[in-house]
Amino acid sequence: MKFFIDTADINEIKEAQAMGVLDGVTTNPSLVAKTGRKFREVLEEIVQIVNGPISAEVVSTDTQGMMKEARDYAAIHDNIIIKIPLILEGLKALKICVDEGIKTNVTLCFQASQALVVGKIGATYVSPFVGRLDDISVNGMELIHQIKTIYDNYGIGTQVLVASIRHPLHLVEAAMMGADVATLPIKVIQQLIKHPLTDIGLERFLKDWEQVPR
Ligand code: G3P
After folding, report:
1. What residues have CB less than 8 Å from 203, skipping those under 6 apart?
2. Is 194 a catalytic residue?
3. Residue 110 near ligand 1, beta carbon < 6 Å
4. Dihedral (CA of 147, 22, 85, 74) sign
5. What is the pTM of this model?
6. Are 107 and 81 in contact (CB under 8 A)?
7. How far apart are CA 156 and CA 140, in angstroms?
8. SS3 sequence, 98-150?
9. Distance 162 CA to ligand 1 centre (A)
10. Residue of the CA atom closest to atom 5 of ligand 1
11. With 10 labelled, which of 44, 52, 112, 127 sits at a CA distance of 20 to 30 A?
């Protein structure tokens, strides 16, 4: 399973990179806005740090505008993945990207029928948002199960990139379902290895070690 970090913050990317778990990066307009920096500058910096897929989201809502942004970002580096919203104009842009060999991540997926269409067109990744479904009392992980089943049934090659992950259990469930990728906020990456018994155990070992003659 690949781990991406869901951020546009360079320090968070470096932190996850140092932990040795980082396979790629996803950004979105809200995450970029938090940095207060120009997106192109941020992207150019990220591609120097991470040697893996880096999602850059288009903000146009018409196919032509999306393609202008897509070609522009894709020219920055081979690792750039064009993130496209799951709307009709976006699907037309997706088809053009597929034909031109531009790698894609179709975002804002909230139901299985959307994922099936995206898979048929041939996106590289689809991003179902599990946390935002949970927020409205719909089981987000059930969507991952449905998409995995459908993609497996028909041998669809689009990778399932679980997004809007809020806590470690989302990741564990996604891994048990065989999701290809999880994109995680830095907080969740850090939570993954936290266990109170680990901390208590270490404290006890270090205390006992003080009794060992030196
Ligand atoms: O990057 C897309 C997704 O992961 C956003 O997550 O927490 O804003 O729902 P969230």
Report:
1. none
2. no
3. no
4. negative
5. 0.96
6. no
7. 21
8. HHHCCCEEEEEECCHHHHHHHHHHCCCEEEEEHHHHHHCCCCHHHHHHHHHHH
9. 10
10. 164
11. 127
